[in-house]
Amino acid sequence: MSAEVADKDYDGTRAIDPASVTIHFGNLASEDSIPPTHYFIGGEFGNASAGQDKPVEINIVLFPESLSYYNYNLTDNPASATASINRGNLVVIPDDGQSKGYRESDPVLTFTTRPEGRESTLSGSLDREAGEDMGSYKFNLGTLSNNNYDKITLDTRNDTVQFAVTKYDPKIIWPDYAELYEGQSLSEAVLAEHLSDKSGKFVFERATVVPIATSAYTLLFIPTDTAFCNAKEAVVKVNVIKAGLKTLEISDGTLTPAFNPNILKYTVTVPAYVANLTITAAADDATKIDGGGQTTIALKGDTTVFIKATLKNGKAKETVYTIAISGGKQPEGTEQIVVGSLKVYPSVTTGIVNVESATGNVPEVKVYDLTGKQRLIKWTNLIDLSAYPQGMYFLQAEGKAIKVVKR
Q1: 294 in helix, strand or coil?
Q2: Which domain holds residue 149?
Q3: Contact call for residues 344 and 395 (beta carbons, < 8 A)
């Protein structure tokens, strides 16, 4: 068996193309042949360098696809041959979009080749025109070399694909948050820890805005050297510090809605038998509450209570919580109820309720509690509730129902 190998152009490898190898099998009978599809060719040059008549070692693997092949042995496998690795030409193609910031060091310049995949065959590095001012610079071959190529050239795109020196980007540690007091503008916000490797200032984009609640805003870094350094921006949460309460409690009735530090208006309906209502407010150490946080109100009808909270440092505006109170004890003997021909007084009592009829007759009076249970039926002008529990009762007489409160 012998082999012939076609020459190839330098590609930096020892590999051969099996299609470039012609195999001659000796000692075959006149009617026998071994087609190329029935064997595998392997082999390689002794080294990858360009040169003439270089030794090539060829190995054949015979596939027993036909019975006739079993009559032969490959006695001179591997076969030896010679072929040349010719010096070729290579085009270097700089990658597009390569740049650096002003005053920064050049990056390693990258490229591809034509024929493709030959980057590793070159030693040295790609380079560019000298210059550090902002602008565009053409690429050049620099120190790229390999003696196995006849010619190494730069791609003609070099006129349009160029290296750029641009404004540099500052390295910034952005603050995790900023803080200001209610009523202050973003220009007065205090930033958490922040840093830039370039001189400049941090300012909020909408510096005159006065936030009413914690929210996110765009923070800018404006470099001193705007001619060569880029401005940058990031979104930062701004915490609004308010004078406010932490808790608000009442001794009787129900606070509506349920307390929330951000809700400023409430209502309370107090049972009729309650004479006094205590309101207790609490805040953090930085906040001062007018009256010390606890107020007791003597109930004499509907009233409104204002609770004022201010920061001790005086930097945030005053926060006022409003509580509208209704119900509660009425002064005994100060209110009478007239319904039709009936007059009932007092409507709030600790015991005695007078029932008078304009007809001068003694009325039949029935007394019911809130559950609808009848507690008393009697012909009388005077009802004694002193033995009954505190609460609301209904008096029925002459077809009329009148509400009274026992306290």
Answers
A1: strand
A2: 90-166
A3: yes
291 inside domain: yes
Sign of CA dihedral 146, 152, 157, 160: positive
- In 87-231 the beta strands, taken as DSSP E runs, fall at 88-94, 99-101, 111-114, 127-128, 135-137, 139-140, 149-154, 163-166, 172-173, 177-181, 190-191, 195-196, 200-204, 215-223
How many distinct structural domains can be found in the chain? 5
Of 33-42, 253-262, 329-338, the least confident: 329-338
- Interval 214-227: pLDDT, tens: 999 999 999 998 98
Q: What residue type is assigned to position 25 of the chain?
A: F
Other Cβ atoms less than 10 A from the Cβ of 206: the count is 12
Domain boundary among 327, 358, 373: 327
332 in any annotated domain: no
236-271, pLDDT tens digit by residue?
A: 999 998 888 999 999 998 999 999 998 999 999 888
Planar angle of CA 259, 327, 246, nearest 5 degrees: 15
94 in the same domain as 82: no
